[in-house]
Design goal:
This protein is an all-alpha fold and 415 residues long. Helix content is 73%, strand content 0%. It folds into two domains: 138 residues, no CATH class; 215 residues, MetI-like (MetI-like fold, Orthogonal Bundle). It is flat, with a radius of gyration of 28 Å.
């Protein structure tokens, strides 16, 4: 008998594809009640009934068509949420409804078992997906406070909350005024135009000055930390290096010691040699904080480095410097760049050391944000925070790309 065997999972009891959406609906109902005790139970029951009914209708009407079920359920939730609350809430409910419609078909047809062995028990299936739900909930708990500032940075009013116009997705509720304030804040004459405007902005705008300082200090601190950290990692990776563990612990101690203690020690030390309140002092301090990240990243890259390559280069007459730049550096370069990016992010986001070491001229973006929160609360801080989030995402994406490239070069992952 020829042919391939296709596993067809058994269909579960009807209560399963209804129970899970009902639980999700009850949770959303509790969140919608916004802590009002008298409404907790009615909202939870209403959410459970609505979601269970949507799942039941999806199963009965669409059977195996998950896309159609998701689209129809999402459209229905959009109308319900927009009519009862606001357009913004309706859009969020449409996303949830699309997910509920697809999930109901996925559960009812038993397709959730396709990623598991046929002999998996019910408890194993529950743990397999329960673990992923827990991880997803933790991820949302960590990421939502960061994401929520992005729409708030476009608020047309000087408030740190969502206005009725924003919730209804009205164009009047959104504005770029706080991003424009980044360019204008502190200018002597914001009403100028052309070259005069850009010249005044570049010289006098407070946020622009802070951005320039952050990139200037971060770039030099990153170069210094990358050079020192790479050399230290190469030395510590050698088996003949004495006292490797104590030296490693000492070099990465800035990651462990509280920043307040490190900043205080650097302040007293730099004050004695005239480096406090100077660019050089801040750069050196940030290099100290960034070096441990370079050491750890490059050391991890050197674990799989074949030391016989350096011995072969020495046998061919290459000196230590030539061996480093021609043999070692090309292979560990992704790890070096990743460590440098981590050092730059550390410098770019650091505020405790800057508070103690930096003067007025050395204000960075986090220092300016700290001053803005204490002296003049403005949604401009949210606009700057949004820009920082975007920059951090871009840098971390680059780190991940370099990490995968390093693994491919070392043969740890398929090309």
């Amino acid at each position: 008998m020829s042919g391939t065997y296709k596993y067809i999972p058994p269909r579960p009891a009807i209560w399963l594809p209804l129970l899970i959406p009902a639980v999700l609906g009850a949770l959303i109902g509790l969140l919608t009640a916004e802590g009002r005790t008298i409404l907790l139970l009615p909202y939870a029951l209403s959410g459970a009934v609505l979601f269970a009914l949507a799942a039941w209708l999806s199963i009965r009407l669409f059977e195996k068509n998950r896309l159609a079920a998701g689209l129809v359920t999402g459209g229905a939730f959009l109308l319900i949420g927009g009519f009862l609350f606001s357009l913004a809430f309706g859009v969020l409910m449409a996303i949830v409804g699309y997910f509920i419609g697809r999930m109901a078909i996925w559960l009812a047809t038993g397709e959730y078992r396709l990623n598991l062995p046929p002999y998996a028990t019910s408890s194993e299936v529950a743990w397999f997906y329960g673990f992923r739900v827990i991880c997803g909930a933790i991820f949302l708990y960590l990421i939502v406070p960061i994401i929520i500032i992005i729409p708030l940075s476009f608020n047309a009013t000087p408030y740190f909350s969502f206005t009725p116009d924003m919730l209804s997705l009205s164009p009047k509720g959104y504005s770029l005024r706080w991003y424009w304030d980044i360019l204008q804040n502190g200018m002597e004459n914001p009403n100028t135009s052309g070259w005069a405007f850009f010249s005044d902005m570049w010289e006098n705008a407070q946020w622009i000055r802070a951005i320039k300082n952050s990139f200037w200090i971060g770039t030099w601190a990153t170069l210094l930390a990358t050079a020192l950290g790479t050399l230290a990692a190469i030395g510590l990776s050698r088996s003949e290096m004495p006292w490797r563990r104590p030296i490693t612990a000492l070099l990465i101690s800035p990651m462990i010691v509280p920043l307040v203690i490190t900043a205080s020690g650097l302040f007293y030390f730099f004050s004695g040699i005239g480096l406090a309140k100077t660019y050089t002092g801040v750069i050196l301090a940030h290099a100290v904080l960034g070096t441990p990240f370079v050491i750890i990243t490059v050391t991890a890259t050197l674990v799989s480095f074949d030391q016989s390559l350096t011995r072969a280069a020495a046998n061919m007459g290459a000196g230590p410097v030539t061996t480093f730049f021609k043999v070692q550096m090309p292979l560990i370069l992704p790890g070096v760049i990743s460590g440098g990016l981590f050092a730059f992010i550390t410098s770019f986001d650091e505020v405790v050391v800057v508070l103690q070491l930096a003067g007025v001229q050395q204000r960075t973006i986090p220092r300016q944000m700290f001053s803005g929160i204490r002296e003049q609360i403005s949604p401009t801080i949210l606009a700057v925070a949004t820009i920082l989030v975007i920059i951090s995402i871009m840098l971390l994406t680059m780190v991940e790309i370099l990490r995968r490239r390093s693994e491919r070069m070392r043969g740890l992952s398929p090309a």
